[in-house]
Records
---
Amino acid sequence: MLTSVFRLLRIVFTVVRFRLDVFIPFGLLPWYVRYTLGAVCAIGRKRAQQNRGERLRLALESLGPIFVKFGQILSTRRDLLDDDIADELAKLQDKVPAFPGHVAQAIIERDLKAPVSELFAKFSATPLASASIAQVHTATLHSGEEVVVKVIRPDIEKTISKDIRLLYTLAHLVANMSADGRRLRPVEVVTDYEYTILDELDLAKEAGNTGLLQRNFTHSDLLYVPQVYWDFSHRNVMVMERISGIPVADIAALNKANVDMKCLAERGVEIFFTQVFSHSFFHADMHPGNIFVDVSNPKKPKYIAIDCAIMGSLDDADKSYLARNLLAFFQRDYRLVAELHVESGWVPKGTPVHAFESAIRSVCEPMFAKPLKDISFGQVLIGLFQTARRFNMEVQPQLVLLEKTLLNIEGLGRQLYPDLDLWVTAKPFLEKWMSEQMGPKRVMEEVRKQAPQWAGQLPQIPNLIYTALSQLSHQEERMQAQTQAIEQLSKELQKGRKNIPFRLLGILSLASAWMVTDPESLEHLQTADIASLGLFLVGLYLLVLKP
């Protein structure tokens, strides 16, 4: 807890130091917070000489890898950011300050248990690129292949652990502050993010992800994934094929190569939906620093993807609900959107569907009044989330990565081709996928998939049938015994009800006998004592002996 407090104080100090108060909506704050915070932020006035975009980038770099990742995500949303901010944040994609080459060499030798001179014919101590989690060096294998060597930053796990603890502290505070905070499920979101970013620190897992993504697109002309050299890869080091291509953010170079930018943008959308719906395994960190373009065929440019540390997946239920929701949006079927949200549990079961439908329509219909190419899916999501607060819609942690990736894809696509129509590009793909899920082809695929399991269970079917019938027979016997017991109990209760007056009279007789008898005069019985004894005997008979 104390560590989290110090980290929070550092964040506040960073906001003051870099004059990030320009991003704070002071008009929405209470007056006492507005004036206090304004006075504190004035301390960092010297930093105001730099432009706001540069100050934001430097602040994120100083706060560490989690905040750099946040800046990378923001850098792809040029449709939401001013150019000066987007240009500066774009530098976070592969221009984070590097750590010394001799430190990287020591990490390589420690992990691979051999000197660099034995591992590689050539090794460049000067990094080719440096990012928030790792940096990359060029090298040549003794067999002649040109490769890149990715090395995890030293002591990065400690820094990330501190930030994760701080995020948990803030998440619990948000969750306990209000119902809206609980609806956002901040603790679950941080847990999901922790799992994701800790996976990013293990290059052995990234190598495995790269191998699977490569197999998924082996025969595709949409995406190329470089080869991993497994003998030279470990937890802190990964060696892979060195690729040649134009960075996707280098618009000038792509135009000089006569690349069809419309085709390139649409292919990016197609790759995303193919990964999500066909493979159930998608690259969830598709910022421009991780994407290159093979321009050998400029009319049909091919993407090259690197850095497969953060991958996402959805189960069949989530994919189905997502596809049906998107198609319903395309068709403006807001009633179906509302019903799907209730059916999937994204909003409580008792939510009035007609009211939810009306709220969704009020958000989406004005957007559809624009040309489709001008509609931002990111703006739709923001509007829907704001509307759904009234209906207690909860954040779905399993969809956070997907939403982030979709926003990245839209931002990147609009950067390549400003007139990109995400809706028109995605709709045919989703319709085809839905028809495949519902049609006879899907049924036959499921039969083929389940056939080996069914064949293995076939010899057990007679025994299973006999066991089921035996259990059914025993169940009938137990039901008969229970019925008889209930009937007997009913008779006893009826009999007991008939004797209730006698029992009550017996109790009254005993009580009367007790009250009129003098225990000290039992040796000299009087008339009252004899009457008392008679009452006692009558009461005993009525209470105990009478059936």
Note: The CA atoms of residues 30 and 36 lie 10 Å apart.
---
Amino acid sequence: MPLVASCAAAVMVSTLGVTIPAAASGAPTVTPDIEERDLTSVDEDGLEAPGARSASPATAQTTNQSTTNLPNLLRSPDALTALGTAPIGTFEKGSSVLRPLSLAETPDQDAEAEPGASDSAPGESESAPAPDEAESTESAAPDMSGGVKEKTEDGINIAAISDVLDVPDSRSSVVGVTFANSESVTIEVRTKSASGWSDWYHLEEDNPGDGTPGTEPFVVSSATDVQIRVLGDEAPEDTRLMVIDPKHSAADAKAVEDNAPVAPPSTGGAEPVGAQPAAAGTQPLAVQPTGASATAGSGFVPGSASVENSSVKKVAKPAIASRKSWGANESLRKGSPDYASKVKAAVVHHTAGSNSYSAGDVPGILRGIYSYHTKGRGWSDIGYNVLADKFGRLWEGRAGGLDRAVIGAHVAGYNTGTFGISVMGTYEKSAPPQETIDAVNHAIAWKLSANGVSVKDRATVGGRTINAVVGHRDLGSTSCPGAAFYSKMGQMRDAIGKMQSSGAVESGKTEAPKPEPKPKTAIESFYEGKEDLLGKPVTKEWDHAGGKVVTYEKGYITWSKKTGPQLIRGAIGSLYKNEAMRNKLGLATAAEKGGLKGGGAFQKFQNGSVHWSKATGAQATWGTLQKYWGSKGYENGHLGYPKSAPTCTDDRCEQLFEGARLVWANGYGVTEFSPHGNIEGSARDLNVPQAGSADEESAEPGSGPAGPGEGSAGPEADTEDGTDEDSAPAGPGEGSAAEETEAPAEETPRETEQPEETEAPAEETEQPEETEAPAEETQEPEETEAPAEETQQPEEPKKDEPKPEESKQEEPKKEEPKSPAQLEQEKRDAVLATARKHLGVPYRWGGSSPRSGWDCSGYVQYVYAQNGIKLPRTTSAQRNAGKVIKASEAKPGDLVWIPGHIGIISETKGQMYDAGSSRTNTSKRSYSWMLSRGAVFIRVVD
């Protein structure tokens, strides 16, 4: 399992039993709300929440999606073992039962395990079910309607899951999990914002051997709800979930305002550090505390730095806001600070968690982490010496004096003699802003130069020789400070070296000539007059989606040459605050418009739209599902407003609307489910796109996830007579309105023997609502018996009976009419003959022609139309066009169906004719894989 970026504190030092007095009188104080809950069992309400059983990104990477034609797309949440695949984890010796990996484990970790570490929970291998028992459990009762199962969709056991918990959406909060004993489990968290639920995020366990075991703290921003789950056989004993609301303080805004972002220091001559007096209020290095408190457990050897670099020039101390400024309650920490003889190296971290916090949230986030470390984990103080926010501000972390060599708790085994600085946020995919990196560089340059250490030095720390500036990942099994941030380390060392070689003085001592005022940008001009509407700017202009964006206190202004300046605010602005949503939507292309159904509003973006209603809030739509929604009339149709954003993988997208849950699967189109999970295949659509709908043009052609030939049909989807069979409005997949009305009349040139059959599809194009009345179609004699023309011809001599000899010749046929069973068998044989005739026809999503290709429902519709049986266009409608029968009653010529796929049962037991995918095209093959998904058998031939 890939390591998740994390930098939770790793080791705590021993503390004295002395309590530090609270902050001085008059200092702003805020008491965070701390909610604790048991997390040792499955909360049924929590398990039923949308996406509660979704696979996490780490486990989904191991899913083998090439073993079947419909892998993990529209199936029930049965285990992957039913498909012969395995989720991520390890197998116990002598057993085929999977044990999920813990956060701290890797598959080859056994050889390097620490003494006393346990490979599995006690009794785990003995209590695991036998392989046969596990297999029968998974396949006995496949669930097609979203029923609750205590497993993820890729088969990993959910040992515990919380209910959906409210968090304040107006400020950031902190969550974490503590437990009595470490177990082989995986702990994950997800958050819900205006854009819907996030992916499950892996919370790394952090067990430094001191205090209470638990996970790293997780910062929640721009969210309304949070949920946590434990994966594995059994949750650890006394597992507790902590939700910390640090609250807002009246002093927070002032603290942010007073703590200006650190400006890059100007350079100038300065004396070597060795000639400088000690900083005010501190002791000289020669008389730093010694003895137990200075060296206990530190492994520090005085003078062990490779170079006592007297040529390093002093770098001015940057502005660092005090603990008092962010409201640290000094009564929470325990004991007295411990000190090393000097600082020999700096370690760079990131805190992990949300990057969507605002500047005003920062003091509260610091209080939340501090409360979790001290109240939840039982530590003496916050772990880092200094923290930096994404805006370039520095904040004092661990108490004891910024100018002294305070021993922190930021990296296991290397706390003594190091300076721990952490940037708030997660920086795996993108590095912190340059102003933040500049602030970190300045702080490190100052701290090392104050101790006579060059960035080029190497020092012995914890019995190991390390560089003077390292990332957390250099010292432990973690991805901290994030791949993107870590890639900047070389440039950071160079920048720190330049500061140390030239010296850095307080900026502002030498007045630089005032530059001429720059002309206003388009965003600055657009902002004029909107100061009260948007508040003050929070950021400078930053690049995004081919344009520029400025973040304000109450919204955004986006700009590009094509779109011009656009305002985003209110509920839509709150949704746009989410970084992932911003990246998906791009820039606004028009202003927000109201007047929609029920007082709703919407706004268009480069890659989709955002709709708002009082009942659903602001929700985004894009791609194939947006097109499908548009074909149903947008908010005016039976689907109503969206209630969540699309959740997509490479092969599947899902989105919840007021009227249905839409699921798109690669190669299988769009299927409608009820909002509660039950299949609503019989639902018909009486709504068509309404002219004048506020967003009737919001769908962007080709923006869906389908690949070439499997998305909206393009010019290549020609019928046999050269017309475009997919010219109906935006039909994404088999569930589209275009496909429901699409008629197989395009096959007229092939229907020379039965011309009367070409009328049946034509009727369907005019009456798509016939999908609700298939029973009437199969009862009409002229429809069901149309291909058997020879059975009607003997009646003609009956009208011309004057010739007795002719009458005699026809008598044997009159005396022996075919029984209903014979007629049914002939019709079944004819269906199978037609099905065999077209083996090898290419698969094409949205197609229904043997010349240009077809998908599964297009093939089925065509075969039965050739034999006088009209079927609707989509799989769900075809499933409801006949009678559901038992599997034991199924005959050749009947249909076998699961959501998103349908086939014709062949004359060979256990096999079917179907158009499965571009890999199989139209073929004869086993349908056993459909049985494991709860296949339904349908009879349309009688």
Note: The longest strand covers residues 186-193.
